[in-house]
Amino acid sequence: IPEPEARSIVEQILSGLEIMHAEAFAHRDLKPQNVLVVNGSPDWWVKLADFGLSKRLTDSTAFNTKGGTQSYMAPEILNYLSMPEGTEQYTNSVDIWAAGCIVYRLITGRVPFPPGKSLVKYCEDKSLFPYDDLFDSGIKSEGYKFLRQLLSALPGERPSASQALKHSWILSK
Q1: Residues in contact with 86: Cβ distance below 8 Å, sequence separation at least 6, in sequence order
Q2: The whole model's pTM is what?
Q3: Is 29 a catalytic site residue?
Q4: Helices marked H in 31-158 — which ranges?
Q5: Coil, strand or helix at 51
Q6: To bridge 92 with a disulfide, which of 26, 62, 118, 122 should be the other Cys (CB 3.0-4.6 Å)?
Q7: Which one, of 56, 66, 61, 62, lies nearest residue 26 by Cα?
Q8: Structural domains of the chain in order of their starting residue, each with its CATH number
Q9: How far lies 170's CA from each of 13, 67, 77, 123, in Å?
Q10: Which residues pair with 47 in a beta bridge?
Q11: Which has more pLDDT, 94 or 86?
């Protein structure tokens, strides 16, 4: 998909996540199959779907279920990050990771971390970001920077949906 169209799609995905996250919900199974296309190219209109794994974070609940689709699951769901025993909880930043995986796939035709060891290696050494396919796609440097943020191995380094919507790549129409 051309970069401007991918940008439009992810902007709509992030807008949906912004609303969900403001109400303390996480989708937890964001993937292309759960993004419904109402109107296709070139004037995309998409909606989020399949909220079967979504959950609201409250004072008495936590996100710790290991579910979703592996190619779009954040490292913290897969326990690929070094975390103290008993703290296997995660936040709605897992949705931001999944949105990054979707954008990567829209632009390159591939998922950034196919099931296997590449994600584990990335979590150990962030220099192994899968940039080759992005460069081959001709993505602008702002798009590359945007994806690096969404696909940060550390959840605390990922932007919120609101912050991502303010990124210069999203705003460059």
Answers
A1: none
A2: 0.88
A3: yes
A4: 93-108, 118-124, 132-137, 141-150
A5: coil
A6: 26
A7: 56
A8: 3-52+68-171 (1.10.510.10)
A9: 12, 29, 27, 26
A10: 36
A11: 94
